[in-house]
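Hi support team,

I submitted a single chain yesterday and got back a structure, but I'm not sure I'm reading the token output correctly. Could someone confirm the output below corresponds to the sequence I sent? I've pasted both exactly as they appear in my results page.

Thanks,
R.
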Amino acid sequence: MDVPIGTSLDDILETIRIHWERDVEKNRVEAGALLQVKQQAEVAHIAQTQEEKLVAALRVELHNTSDQVQRLQAETESLWALNRGLENTLQDAKHWHDMELQNLGAVVRRLEAELREMQGEAEQQLQAREHLLALKCQLQREVATYNALLDRKQSG
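Hi R., thanks for writing in. Yes, this is the structure output for that exact sequence:
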């Protein structure tokens, strides 16, 4: 700072104060700019850190999702195999059911034939019984007639 000769103490102090205020203002501006740069660097670092955390979280989520997809694919394959097994079992059951129906149909037809045969035999026995009953009645009449004749001969 150059102070002219013959300047009063007040002028010197005023000059020092002006220089000091300029230096303070300059330092304040430089400190503000430095602080702003530092804040921007911190914000960038925080943003980068957040992005890194987000990328890491997305990687973990991708890995978990991939594992889940694999588990679901395995479960789906298992369910398809189970479905095929159940369909085969159903087909076997239908086949067995059809065979049983055929067997039961044969049994029913045989029993119906036996029933018709028994009905025929019962009809024949009924006719034979009626025929024998008719013969018995006829013989009883003839015996009664014969007894009546004998009684008349013996009484007469």
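A quick pointer for reading it: The longest helix spans residues 9-155. Let us know if anything else looks off.

Best,
Support desk
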